[in-house]
Every structure is written in structure tokens, then in C-alpha cells.
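Model: Ready when you are.
Researcher: Fold this.
Model:
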Amino acid sequence: MISVEQAVQSAVSFFKVLQKNGGSSDLRVEEVELSQDGKSWLITLGFTTFGASFADGPRREYKLFQVNADNGHVDSMKIRVVQ
């Protein structure tokens, strides 16, 4: 089984590859959890985005990554809504 640090690094690397600007400079780990079946790490990363205009201001967005606990492969990335 990979460590939680390795799972986070996999999620961060995956996120940065998909971002055309290399990702957000304020990318942060928000939550880490081992799935109930122990097969996946669930990693939530948060970052700041800006609206279409400056008046919209910044807002926090979140992505949930499912990382295979055996090999570190990112199996999925989803939008995570936080209320």
C-alpha cells in the first residue's frame, strides 16, 4: 500500500498536468481519507479561481481524487461541492 504522502503527490501531479497554467499557486490539501474498503485514498484539493470579471472576486473550488492505494494511479477526479 502506498503512503498518504504518495497518494497526495499523485493527486497534485495529476491536477497540475490537467491545468494549462500548471495549477494554482495556492493549491492546498483539504481532506485525506482511506476508503472504507481500503482500496483507495480519497484526496480533496482546494484552489482559488477568479470569475469572468475582477468584480466577481476570488472563490475557492475543490476537486476530489480517488487514488489507487496499491499503485498510486489516479482513478478519478470529480468536482467536490462544499456548502
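Researcher: Now this one.
Model:
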Amino acid sequence: MDELLHTAIPVLFIILWRLYVRGQNLKYKDVLPWLIYPFVYIIFTAIRGEMTGYYPYPFIDVSQLGYLMVIINSLWLIIAFSGLSLFLVAMGKREKSVSDH
């Protein structure tokens, strides 16, 4: 299941994005709402991990790393998601400018 989640799903996401998302309609302000899911997931995982002692990823394992390191790791994750999101918007805007010429 882990293999499917971390290999097939990203590939399918890229295919579906290319087929169905009109990149030209994306705006940079769209990026903030896209960050809600990873932010909520990090918080949910931290709360669940505190209650159960199970953390699905080593970079958010508070029992091994401590809260400060997990917060730093989480910030890097949000930065990575932000960068990817900004890249997708930029590519959509690029497609628009290319199609306009």
C-alpha cells in the first residue's frame, strides 16, 4: 500500500493535472488554500501520534526528534509544498503566455 501511495498516486496526479486542470486559470492566490491540507495533516498526525505513539513518517516522530525538530521539519515541508504550488501556477501562466502568441 505504501508503494502505491508514494509512487502511483504522484504519477496519476501529474497525468490528471495535465489532462483536466486549466493552468491558465490558476492564480498565485490559489496557493494558500492548497496549503490547508498539508498543514492540517501535520497537525492531525502530531495529535494522533501523541495519543497513540505512532508517527507514519520519521521526520515527524516527536518521540525521537522532539517538538522543535518536528516543527522545523514541518516548516520545510510547507515550504516545499509552497514551492511546488508556485511552480504549478507559474507553469500555467507560462502556458497562457505561449498560447497567446
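Researcher: Key takeaway?
Model: The CA atoms of residues 1 and 7 lie 10 Å apart.
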